[in-house]
Amino acid sequence: MTDTRHALIIANDRYSDQGLKKLRAPAEDAVALERVLHDPQIGDFQVEVVHNASADHMRRRIQGFFNDRGRADTLLLHFSCHGLKSESGELYFAASDTEPPLLAATAVASQFVRSCMSGTRAGRTVLFLDCCYGGAFSRGSSSVRASGDVNVLESFAKDEPASGRGWAVITASDSMEYAFEGNQLSENSAPRPSVFTHAVVEGLETGEADLDADGKVSLDDLYEYVYSQVRDQNPNQTPKKAAELQGELHLAHSRRGRIKIAAIPSPPSLQAALNSEDVLTRQGAVLELRRRSQHTELPMAEGARQHLEEVARNDIQQIADLASEALNEIRLAPSPDHLDFGLVPRGSLPQKRSVTMQGPPLARHCVAQPNHSWLRVDPTRSGLEVHVDTAAEGHLSGDIALKGVAEESVIHVEAVVGPAQEPGPETAPEPATAQGSAEAAHGSDGERDTVVVGPSRIPPHPDNPPPAHAHQTRTDQPSPSRRAPTLAGAALALAVTSVLTLVLAIQAGVAAVMARSDAVDSSIEQEVREHGALAPLTVCLITGAVALVVGAFARHDLGARREHYTTQAASITRTLTSIAKGLAIPALILAVVVGIAYLVGSSHW
Fold first, then answer.
1. CA distance 294 to 304
2. Closest CA to 554 of 539, 534, 567, 569
3. Contact between residue 390 and residue 327 where contact means Cβ atoms under 8 Å apart
4. Which among 473, 448, 484, 482 is positioned nearest to 339, based on CA atoms?
């Protein structure tokens, strides 16, 4: 998210007035909602929580929240508390010190909140109301009516937003309903988020609220998702929405499924070439698609990828294999795909490792989703930086799911968090050096949250290697392998040798045939032996066959140990083996034909 985003969560579950029932959900609401809104990979909001505050403190925090904002700001205010109606039908939000007979003095009026929203300079304001209107409190409080109607949405829609700005209000229930905590309003179960807030948190956290699968959760997406979830769980509760917005408001990034890119179709001429009857024309079209799939413009690359998938499914084997090779070059290829942090002391600065995303831009375009809170990810220019939180001792094992446009990959992470190191002379810090200063800078920045839930946005500098003691707890990352490119080069050399020896064999065979025509008392076998045609023919057959075997082994090693190869090495391997295959197979076929012709003709000539 590029704008400045702020959220204020007001959660009240304890009240001094005995007539107001204690609520179970607000504390859980605040914790769950703060987590997803603050997560930089989901909401990316700066979040403040006000818990069990007095009415005066609530008013101060609300007004301060809306003051001093700019057009680039997006503000989200969430209430989780009792909603009370005065005898005149006005809505009030209950504070910890609210006295129902004195609502105007001891509660926060909806008119006050509406005034703050209307007066702010923020570009977008969103209000979530997870409270009941007209009676989620004890029947013994006779000074406040538990019936009657207060139209909350209408009360917040009276003032039009200033030009260029907008607002939205989503309520947990309509004017006549309770906002249910779980399935009931009683106090006899363990704390858990309310039905409404649970749906909000779940939709954002899982990405299921991204209904149009565009990678972002809009306000409309979230409302439709929450409405469906709440109604499914409790038909007696009906969420409502009112909004005056210019354009679409995106509340969060989606963590569901793969990234979706609006593809640019390939040019008509290229599509026509793909449908040509001529094999060479289709082959050339696939090569052009391969080039486009590696383009820096992702929509163009995605369009080419989709065409390559279609070719790989439907064309003849030769063309389909060529398309599959092009698709392999844009697959997710994290290097390494296994990180072992070894033994790290509890309470130390968050440990981190770098993962390089190899390949063209489309292969590097993905979303990283750790499956544990101790595992955190920060994007870098070359890929990812993985962090491990050392707050708790024990063996840690988790995965980071990488989701791209068409496939997924996994990075496995392990670490063992041991006892904290006791300070002593042997662990005293060394004098500050340039390298030490860089390490310290990275560590201090690691204290704040970054993408997913984690620390440090500063990638380690290549000129600043980790201190010597770090090698005691870190395992070396696998270095790039050269086996497959070397084998591919050998396969190509053997294929070239096969072709050259075939040419020599054919030349010698032609000379033998001409000599046999001139000599009446000679035989073709004798002339072939004298001109040395059999030796190069035999070498051709052997080298051609070996070239195919070596090339196949190079491709197998490339597929089995993909993480050990750079994109350039993988591309070189595929290119060399393809050329070797293209040379060796025709050479073998011709050599076999020549050999059969010799065997058949030698007995008659």
1. 9
2. 569
3. no
4. 473
Distance CA 589, CA 45 (A): 67
Q: Residue 294: is it exposed, middle or buried by C-beta count within 10 angstroms (0-12/13-18/19+)?
A: buried
CB-hemisphere CA count at 13 Å for 496? Answer: 9
The kind and range of the H/E element at 503 are helix 483-518
> Beta strand 46-51 with 4-11: parallel, antiparallel or unpaired?
parallel
Among 254, 266, 152, CA closest to 209: 254
* Burial class of residue 394 (count of CB atoms within 10 Å of its CB; 0-12, 13-18, 19+): exposed
As a whole number of angstroms, the longest Cα–Cα distance in the chain is 132
Which residue type, as a one-letter code, is found at position 353?
Answer: R
Write out the E strands in 52-178: 73-80, 83-85, 91-93, 108-109, 124-130, 166-171
pLDDT at residue number 533: 80
State the Cα–Cα distance between residues 550 and 151, nearest whole angstrom. 77
Q: pTM, whole model, 2 decimals?
A: 0.47
Give the dihedral sign, CA 433/439/443/449: positive
Q: Which of 167-171, 347-351, 360-364, 445-449 has the lowest mean pLDDT?
A: 445-449
Instruction: Give the residue ranges of DSSP H helices in 315-353.
Output: 317-328
b/e 528-563 (16+ beta carbons within 10 angstroms → b): beebebbebbebbbebbebbbebbebbbebbeeebb
Distance CA 493, CA 129 (A): 73
Find, among 132, 227, 130, the residue nearest to 175 by Cα: 132
- pLDDT band, very low/low/confident/very high, at 524 (cuts 50, 70, 90): confident
Do the Cβ atoms of 81 and 132 come closer than 8 Å?
no
pLDDT, one tens digit per residue, over 176-199 is: 444 444 444 334 433 445 788 889
Write the Ramachandran bin of 182: left for phi over 0, alpha for psi from -120 to 50, otherwise beta: left
Give which of 449, 383, 381, 370 is closest to 415, Cα–Cα.
370
Cα(560)–Cα(573) distance, integer angstroms: 14
DSSP states of 165-219 as a string?
-EEEEEESS-TT----BTTBS-S-S-----HHHHHHHHHHHHSTT-TT-SSEEEH
**415, β-bridge pairs:** 396
Whether the bond between 239 and the residue before it is cis, its omega within 30 degrees of 0, is no
What does pLDDT average to over the chain? Answer: 78
Q: How far apart are CA 333 and CA 130, in angstroms?
A: 44
Nearest to 365 by CA among 452, 312, 293, 448: 293
In the numeric block, the tokens 């440090």 are attached to: 456
**Sheet strands side by side (includes 108-109):** 83-85, 91-93, 108-109
Cβ atoms 215, 41 nearer than 8 A:
no
Encoded tokens for 70:
């700019």
226 φ, ψ (degrees, to nearest 5): -65, -45
Could you read off the pLDDT of 581-592 as tens digits, one per residue? 899 999 899 888
The whole-angstrom separation of Cα 589 and Cα 571 is 28
